[in-house]
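[Q] Does anyone have a clean structure-token version of this?
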Amino acid sequence: MHCSRTVLAALAFAGLGLASSSAFDRPDTTFKVFQFPADQIPRVDGDAGDWAMVPESYVIDGSQLIDVEVNNPQRAPDPKDCVVRVKVGWVKGLNRLYFLVEATKPKWDFASPGLRQDTFELVVDGDASGGPLIDKGHREFWNPEHVGASRAVPDDRISVNEAHWAIQGVQAQNYHIFTPFENKDWCMAWDAATWIKEFPYANAAEHYDFRPGQGGKLTLEFWITPFDYAGPEGPQRAVESVLRENKLIGLCWALMEYGNATNNHHLHFWDLSPHFTMYGDASQLCAFQLMPLEPALQKPIAAQWSWSVVDMDRHLVAFKDLSAGQITSWKWDFGDGASSTEQNPQHAYKRPGSYVVILDIDGPAGHSRRSKVWDISLR
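[A] Here you go.
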């Protein structure tokens, strides 16, 4: 009997008894995502200069990682083996996450054209909904023989093939980013929706001067678009995760190192989560908070506002103050002779037309004005 993807997803999360709510790993730790000003968006070119404004408090280094491959929760990368620094950023109004990865190692393994090479594996859950994100979740991760009796037994009505197309990367996404990505795509999107790694949904650049087997420093820059829904059919029905100030998202990464390993098993799997299976379980990701602008980057006072039509027949418009800084007074000029001193007023225009609306604000830092020419157009 054929099952739709919607039904499969419902079985996956409800029928199997898997929680769809988030359960962030490392509950005592919230990492920070730096907000770039809109006029200082980092250029993805492999040059870390654009990230110099990011304070050290945002840096996540190797001391936060655990070598879960050898199941030793006390072992982080030895600086002689690997020095890594990661910064994460965002821009208000864009549903993108920006990353800077700087890593130095005595030996880099990237000669293989396939999966077996040093990798920065990233998992993102933009709405922090949690739950499995790869098909193996039905046949392996949730089997009591593997992870304990608290997990449900897989539902045999769902084949691995059906599960792949139903949930693989749909509600959270996994990126195997090759370090470096010489002669291959910059990453493998471990999803049914492989289009998520392509521009305009992602972009990447890097800089390095070493060859396979040699040591040196890699500078990797990239950005991705997190999705609440990213189906295999393509971007036409995709739903981007909406990024806003102070929102918590699920995010985690691991450094996969092969070194002298003789097969496809990792020599090391340095993980930000203590759970090796975070790569397929979004409930095992870490909490990252989308921070406001740092005080040094904020304007002391700046007028800004938005509007929406409440009732077109009545020409009723709602205005919302979006100004920055400490504000003590507002004055709105609605462009038709009427005004208001409310912070977020509504105004009913008497006749159709296009209007110039002005907001003046005052505060301890001074005065600011923002006008919008003919944005309010009622017909």
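[Q] Thanks! Anything notable?
[A] Residues 245 and 292 are 6 Å apart (CA to CA).
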